[in-house]
Automatic annotation (TrEMBL):
<keyword id="KW-0052">Apoplast</keyword>
<dbReference type="GO" id="GO:0048046">
    <property type="term" value="C:apoplast"/>
</dbReference>
<comment type="function">
    <text>Dirigent proteins impart stereoselectivity on the phenoxy radical-coupling reaction, yielding optically active lignans from two molecules of coniferyl alcohol in the biosynthesis of lignans, flavonolignans, and alkaloids and thus plays a central role in plant secondary metabolism.</text>
</comment>
<dbReference type="InterPro" id="IPR044859">
    <property type="entry name" value="Allene_oxi_cyc_Dirigent"/>
</dbReference>
<dbReference type="GO" id="GO:0009699">
    <property type="term" value="P:phenylpropanoid biosynthetic process"/>
</dbReference>
<comment type="similarity">
    <text>Belongs to the plant dirigent protein family.</text>
</comment>
<protein>
    <recommendedName>
        <fullName>Dirigent protein</fullName>
    </recommendedName>
</protein>
<dbReference type="Pfam" id="PF03018">
    <property type="entry name" value="Dirigent"/>
</dbReference>
<keyword id="KW-0964">Secreted</keyword>
<comment type="subunit">
    <text>Homodimer.</text>
</comment>
<dbReference type="InterPro" id="IPR004265">
    <property type="entry name" value="Dirigent"/>
</dbReference>
Length: 155
């Protein structure tokens, strides 16, 4: 039996802060290798905002980032987008992909989801924006499909 798929789209701004009391990324392993940062593992909890003025918190991107390229600054991401909007609270998108630090656009696969976004699939495109300080701003366009499902009754 075929299920109806529904499309979703979000246009958000990723704001990563590297230092200070509000930092959103923490390095947990930083081996000393020939290529700077190869093998580094970081954990992130980065807000996704509705605009550059940080008006509305849409979601948080949470999970590990691994410096997996010996020749360039190529990071592997395998993380969740945890939604904060009241109507989507607790719903997630699972993403995977490679972030080349110095290139644009970036592209990530949506490989699953929970809550509202059950059986999600899709793509995220990102482009780096100029930042007035040492933080990182990335504009993200998130587009995909999900299949609405009803949670089972355990009675």
């Amino acid at each position: 039996m075929a299920a109806d798929k529904k499309e979703f789209y979000f246009h958000v701004y990723f704001h990563e802060i590297f230092d200070g009391v509000n930092k959103t990324t923490e390095t947990v392993i930083s081996p000393n290798k020939d290529f700077p940062e190869f093998g580094q593992i970081g954990i992130m909890d980065v807000p996704l905002w509705s605009d550059l003025n940080q008006k509305t918190l849409i979601a948080r991107m949470q999970g590990p980032a691994l410096q997996s390229d010996q020749n360039t600054y190529g990071w592997h991401l395998s993380c969740s987008i945890e939604f904060e909007l009241p109507e989507l609270k607790g719903s997630t998108l699972q993403i995977m992909g490679r972030a080349l630090q110095l290139t644009s656009p970036r592209e990530f696969a949506i490989v699953g989801g929970t809550g509202v976004f059950t059986l999600a699939q899709g793509v995220i495109y990102g482009r780096r924006l100029s930042s007035p300080d040492d933080s990182l701003w990335i504009e993200l366009k998130i587009n995909g499909y999900y299949t609405p499902m009803t949670q089972p009754s355990w009675n």
